[in-house]
Each structure stands twice: as structure tokens, then as C-alpha cells.
Amino acid sequence: METPFRLHYDPFGRLVLTMTDDATHVGVEAVRSFPATDPDRFVSIVDAEGREVMWVDDLATLPPDLRRTLEAELTRRHFLPTIERIVQVKGSIQPTEWEVETDHGPVRFTLNSDEDVRRMPNGWVVIADAQGVRYAVRNLDRLDPASRRWLDDYIW
Fold first, then answer.
1. Are 108 and 97 in contact (CB under 8 A)?
2. Can you give the pLDDT at residue 80?
3. In what order do the strands lie in the sheet containing 83-90?
4. In this predicted structure, what is the pLDDT of residue 35?
């Protein structure tokens, strides 16, 4: 089976897509179009700006290694622990080290930039750490005052 494209990680942990014509896209993400109803079909690979650069109709048509890489990325993308409390943020310049309590237990992670903290239309805040793991703050009003002060520095 001919591989329609290649995926690998660069030294910074970013996913890199290389097309058959050797065009390369660094920092791509895999996104399910219909995650609940058809999770193994219709996957878009988007560049760092969110523009689609590759479309996969069916993961079953891919070679096993490529399919495993895409499935792992999709699992990571759709894993979204909820931050219940921000214990502390270390560092006055970026990157910063965060210590948080989530619905999956305590976590420490590195935040590269305030651009990795996004306010979503549904009122949530989504934080992407240096490894690409995303965390959600689902209700800002439920955060304790100290956690809210930490977060306010990033969401204005």
C-alpha cells in the first residue's frame, strides 16, 4: 500500500506532515469532522493556522503505522481534562510552568505563550500546553478567586 503522506514529530514535539511532493507542514493537527457519529472517517489535517492541508476519507485505508499515528493524535486532541483549580503559575516571562488540579488529578505543564490560552464562544477557556495537550476551564465563575486571578493575566 502506497503511503499518501508521512507524519513524524520534529525535535520540538510538533507533528509534521510531508506530502508526496515533499511539501512540508510543521505543527499540523488532526481533526475529526464527525467525532461522535463517524470517528474513523472524514479526518482533516490542518496547518498551524487552521487551514486544511490534507483530507482523509477513511482511516482504514491508511497503512497501519500512519493510521496509529493519526489515531493517537486524534485521541490526544479529544482528551480534554477540566481545570478545577490553578495552584500556581511559575515564571514572569514565557514560557511559564503551571501547576493545576484537574478532574483527572494534579498536573504540571509548560505554557509556551499567552496565545495558547483561548477564550471560546461557549464561555469556556481552552489552554494548550507545550506538548499539545488541551485543558478546559468550563466555567470561569466556578474558579476560586486565586485561580481566577492567575487566569485573568492570560485571558484579559
1. yes
2. 83
3. 83-90, 96-102, 105-111
4. 65
The letter for the amino acid at 33 is S
Q: Which amino acid does the sequence have at 148?
A: R
> What are 76-112's pLDDT values in tens digits?
877 789 999 999 999 888 899 999 999 999 999 999 9
3-state DSSP percent of the chain in helix, strand and coil, to 5: 20, 40, 35
Kindly give, in sequence order, each residue whose CB lies less than 8 Å from that of residue 21, ignoring residues fewer than 6 positions away: none
* pTM assigned to the model: 0.58
d(CA 23, CA 15): 14
3-state helix/strand/coil string of 99-127: EEEECCEEEEEEECCHHHEEECCCCCEEE
Return all residues near 97 (Cβ < 8 A) that are at least 6 apart: 89, 90, 91, 108, 109, 110, 111
- Residue 117: partners with Cβ closer than 8 Å, 6 or more residues away: 111, 125, 126, 127, 151, 154, 155
Report cis status (omega within 30 of 0) of the bond before 4.
no
